[in-house]
Amino acid sequence: MHYYLGIDLGGTNTKAGIVDDQGKIYCKDSIKTFADRDQYEIVHDMGTLAKRVIDACGIPFNEITAIGVGAPGTSDNVTGELIFTGNLSFRHMPIRDEFHKMIDLPFYIGNDANVAALAESKAGAAQGSQSSVTITLGTGVGGGFVINNRIYSGFNQAGCEIGHTVVVAGGEPCTCGRRGCFEVYSSATALVRDTTRAAKAHPESILNQLILDNLGHVDGRTAFIAMRAGDPTASAVIEHYIEMLAESLANVINSCMPEVIAIGGGISHEGDALLLPVRDRALARAFLAENIAKPRIVLAKMGNDAGIVGAAMMAMNCMEDGLIG
Amino acid sequence: MHYYLGIDLGGTNTKAGIVDDQGKIYCKDSIKTFADRDQYEIVHDMGTLAKRVIDACGIPFNEITAIGVGAPGTSDNVTGELIFTGNLSFRHMPIRDEFHKMIDLPFYIGNDANVAALAESKAGAAQGSQSSVTITLGTGVGGGFVINNRIYSGFNQAGCEIGHTVVVAGGEPCTCGRRGCFEVYSSATALVRDTTRAAKAHPESILNQLILDNLGHVDGRTAFIAMRAGDPTASAVIEHYIEMLAESLANVINSCMPEVIAIGGGISHEGDALLLPVRDRALARAFLAENIAKPRIVLAKMGNDAGIVGAAMMAMNCMEDGLIG
């Protein structure tokens, strides 16, 4: 059996686990990232975490084949550099070289949304599919495109940033500098923004009362809760959210035509209340002739383990493809 | 040397040519399609045209390896069916079987925009690229996505309909049933619509005078001509056209991250007046970290031969991949 060490570098936590070639996690551990530190300190701690997980796991070191890291931002898996991250301080970090000083294993790196999509393809909601796009509805909207069980990240390894495709030209401002991106209508952040606006515009609403009862706290669940309590203001917020998500998913179908679209991230915990209307609308408006097989739109399955498993599976793919790590 | 017969089935003309494995055309011919006829009659004439081109070419029949057809709409290259076309009457036409009755050669079929993109990848503006998207600015907006010299058309062979990704939710109505698609802002049809509207709103403009001088005729060149004559009304029309095209091309980059975007179709004949501002704006707003290689946005090169060459190259790929034809 071959095992791989997967590391999920996040803005808050850094997680690591030992994963087999089927995507099963044998043991895992995590540390706080403390994102505002020097990039070399963060990488050093990642190495210490990796060694700790290997030691704790009990699997002989020579059965561990490679290390994979899923990181935010842009990395270069040829040179082994973490080129740029938004929330963290990484700038042209030679992370493969640094890891080689600590652990003598082939080392690979990819984008966190891309490896999460690979995890869904290898062991999750898109298992067995020819192609899939995994959309993560979190602080932002992450997107990863997998074809034939390989991440498709384009000629420069910088794709696919599906969350930054504009669906409302001139619309709400996005952190990427454009206006009207998928992300600014379908992220948890967008839903919080629209929930807050609607509550202010309708002080008499159940939604506003719910927020007051929670001392002003609003999150991605707030409008769903008020909707279930029968509040029309909240229903309108959710209706708009679902409508915009369906519009963007129809765009994903028409541009990428994946066999499976897996929806993950915090908002996906709403389950069928979100999934069913979004699926119906997205498939109804996608460009699909009558007798053509339709993409399956489903909830993602890998949850918080997507990063670890995906990073490990990415390392496995790189080894199979003979890439230098 | 291997030769392939490429057929470009269009709403007005049907073209056929003998093409070598480098994408060079040796001879070609065409007939009127007469689109409102029975689908079997059209296919019979396609076969007659194919035989005529083979006879006229002088290349021995046993050096012609396969036939490829690029057709509008949706086809199934596994079953050999032309499933559905919008402008033509095809509905579940067993076109491979019909061709086999006429010509004893392996037969393959694909979407016309997809094979045109393959032609650019094999022998045109995207030659040598790892991946490319070819966008055709014509009556509609056609899109084809090529990865590693193979058409990417998704798990159901029905992708990629990039022209039907929404960029203005709730915007202008599109023939696909949605509103605000790439196509309804960037096709020649869209430019004619906006040119006509602007001329009506500004009867004093050079643009309006130009249209009156042409007995009311408007086409994709009209606003460009009036702009070059210094007309601010026409300049505003072109500015809007370029802005929307740049927005959609930035979406293509963020969703598909191709190494090359090739722009073809009637409007692309405007050359640098179109290409340069669109390229600058699309690259400036795409999600690309500073030191990341950027896609090349260029004019397509294959012109009216794209369909014949692409259909032939598709047939070549299918033979290489061992697909049953």
Report on this model:
- The structure is a homodimer of 325-residue chains.
- The first copy, chain A, has 325 residues and is of the alpha/beta class.
- The model of chain A has no long low-confidence stretch (mean pLDDT 96).
- The first copy, chain A, has 10 helices and 13 strands.
- Chain A has helices at residues 39-57, 95-102, 112-123, 183-186, 188-201, 206-213, 222-228, 232-256, 272-285, 306-320, and strands spanning 3-9, 13-20, 25-32, 64-71, 74-76, 81-84, 91-93, 107-111, 131-137, 141-147, 150-151, 260-264, 296-299.
- Chain A has a 5-stranded mixed beta sheet with strand order 3-2-1-4-8, with helices on both faces. In chain A, strands 11-10-9-12-13 form a 5-stranded mixed beta sheet, sandwiched between helices. Chain A has a 3-stranded antiparallel beta sheet with strand order 5-6-7, with no helix packed on it.
- The interface between A and B is large, with 50 and 51 residues.
